[in-house]
Amino acid sequence: MPKVGVIGGSALDTVENLEVSHREMVNTPYGATSSPLLFGKMNGGDIVFIHRHGFGHTIAPHEINYRANIWALKELEVTHIIATGAVGGITEHMSPITLVIPDQIIDYTHSRNQTFYENNQEPVIHVDFTWPYDEQLRTVLNRSAVKLNLPVVSRGTYAAVQGPRLETAAEIKRLERDGCDIVGMTGMPEAVLARELDITYACCAVVVNWAAGKGNQEEALIDTINTNMKTAKASVHKLLAEALPMIMEL
Ligand code: HPA
Known about the structure:
This protein is an alpha/beta fold.
């Protein structure tokens, strides 16, 4: 039976409707996780929830201990991870409030610990990362969003950038030329670490602003992000509740 881990990003600091049974701090060989893990039930399914930025949102994207978070979920026998995260929209259909279930990612981050295969005695395995997100789990997320009538774009390429600053307009133009549709700061190395530990992983990205130089430049970027974050959070909550029973059938 699948066991679902939800990684909450900026757009999801808690999971509504989660009947929390207990919380636990998990120690890993890589150090502490971003937050204690919350265990609970939602819509009949078990969930383990972790907040990527820590409760109180104090951990910047480049400071997140991605290895500890993924290792802890594996240790708790999580089989499927839904990773949520706020992103900026680059291409035409990626307007604020839209949910995007990406099918590709380009990694522009640096200086992050991006593998479990170092400093140990195990032979190195070069994981296949041609398709970084799980197709079945993506389909469930897409179907759930459509069923709920939420604005969703069923695929796209996620540009994972270092942050914590937002981009320049020229950087966004370059990402667009590279084929990126959305831009966020936490997509990597999380996705590849899950792959290394053989955990099924998909991302539900929520567009909270037009990326730098795109859309209506008269609005203050940070104000837009804060307003859209609230709407986005409500959509992600609904999506999770709808998707959970379907994931249990996988
Ligand atoms: N750029 C990078 N990360 C983000 C953005 C953005 O515009 N919006 C939300 N996360």
